């Protein structure tokens, strides 16, 4: 793995809470004055919004009702791996953005000097900012594997974000309704269509991550399709699993995070309301070590 040009990948499905982890990292980057080149997972889809809808319809006509954003047919898995490899070797790479909304279209049109970018399309490719300390990816497929493709082999720190599945569905149903105006029925159709690719291409990544953050509700989520609201952070615990517990300072975490406890030798459980705090407590020293190793690498090669 690279030490001169570290790569961090936060991976989790839509509605899983990866944005919470992203904000925790952004807080660390700002506070510790680290410069991160950021790659958004949506930017490495292979189909824009209209093309994706057409592909879904075409697949359904052929009897395939499982075409989704989670699978290789709608993503550039090869470019994810290539992006990580190039950055780890050179400290730079290409990136683009997926335009989610009208507000983003205005910002990206201004940035690229264009007038025709619309929601559901991609921006042109550009070089990431020079002299970044690390590459930060947040999306669906940070450690994806498919055939000869293995994005994770170029990742120095892999973070998984995966609520228990019923909670994930509740979050998605409510988010799609509030932010996109989708009916619960339409979202359920999407969940069902995505399920084969979710099982095949998303969940295997969580066995490869270095740290998993899994939120578990302490209220009844047995029927997510009729839940009136999303369980709050205070109505949940966060299960934090370390793939390699050797060297992890669990006594320090237990002392710093009130009401936390160990459920297994490699698993820390914290109150849901402490999720962001726990992330920053755990991740800050890891990033410090990355940057320190990067400096040592640079000094050895002067």
How does this model look, in words?
The protein is of the alpha/beta class. The protein contains 8 helices and 12 strands. The chain has helices at 18-31, 49-61, 77-90, 102-112, 165-180, 184-202, 250-256, 275-300, and strands spanning 7-11, 36-40, 94-95, 126-127, 134-139, 145-146, 149-150, 157-161, 211-217, 236-242, 261-264, 267-271. Strands 2-5-1-8-9-10-12-11 form an 8-stranded mixed β-sheet. Strands 3-4 form a two-stranded antiparallel ribbon. β11 (261-264) and β12 (267-271) form a beta hairpin. The longest helix is centred in the C-terminal third of the chain and has 26 residues, at 275-300. It starts with 6 loop residues before the first strand and ends with a helix.
Segments where pLDDT lies below 50 for 5+ residues? Answer: none
Helix content: 25-40%
Biggest sheet descriptor: 8 strands, mixed
Number of strands: 12
Taking all Cα atoms into account, the compactness measure Rg is: 20 Å
Strand residue percentage:
15-25%
Q: Note the overall shape.
A: globular
The number of helical runs is 8
> Strand order within the widest sheet?
2-5-1-8-9-10-12-11
The helix-and-strand class reads: alpha/beta
N-to-C span: 20 Å
Order of secondary-structure elements:
EHEHHEHEEEEEHHEEHEEH
């Amino acid at each position: 793995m690279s030490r001169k040009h570290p790569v961090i990948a936060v991976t989790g499905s839509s509605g899983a809470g990866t944005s919470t982890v992203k904000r925790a990292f952004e807080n660390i980057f700002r506070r510790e004055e680290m410069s991160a080149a950021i790659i958004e997972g949506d930017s490495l889809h292979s189909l824009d919004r209209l093309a994706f809808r057409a592909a879904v319809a075409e697949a359904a006509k052929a009897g395939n009702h499982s075409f989704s954003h989670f699978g290789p047919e709608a993503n550039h898995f090869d470019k994810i791996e290539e992006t990580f490899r190039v950055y780890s070797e050179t400290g730079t790479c290409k990136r683009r953005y997926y335009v989610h909304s009208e507000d983003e279209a205005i910002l990206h049109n201004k940035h690229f000097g264009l007038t025709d970018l619309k929601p559901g399309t991609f921006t042109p490719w550009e070089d990431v900012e020079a002299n970044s300390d690390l590459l930060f990816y947040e999306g669906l497929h940070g450690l994806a594997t498919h055939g000869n493709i293995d994005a994770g082999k170029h990742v120095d720190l892999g973070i998984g974000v995966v609520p228990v599945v019923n909670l994930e569905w509740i979050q998605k149903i409510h988010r799609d309704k509030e932010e996109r105006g989708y009916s619960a029925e339409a979202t359920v159709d999407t969940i069902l269509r995505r399920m084969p690719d979710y099982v095949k291409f998303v969940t295997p990544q969580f066995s490869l991550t270095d740290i998993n953050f899994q939120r578990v509700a302490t209220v009844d989520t047995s029927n997510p399709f009729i839940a009136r609201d999303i369980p709050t952070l205070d109505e949940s615990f966060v299960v934090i699993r370390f793939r390699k517990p050797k060297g992890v300072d669990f006594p320090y975490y237990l002392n710093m995070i009130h009401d936390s406890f160990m459920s297994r030798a490699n698993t820390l459980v914290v109150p849901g309301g402490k999720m962001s705090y726990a992330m920053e407590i755990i991740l800050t020293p890891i990033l410090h070590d990355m940057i320190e190793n990067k400096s040592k690498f640079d000094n050895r090669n002067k």
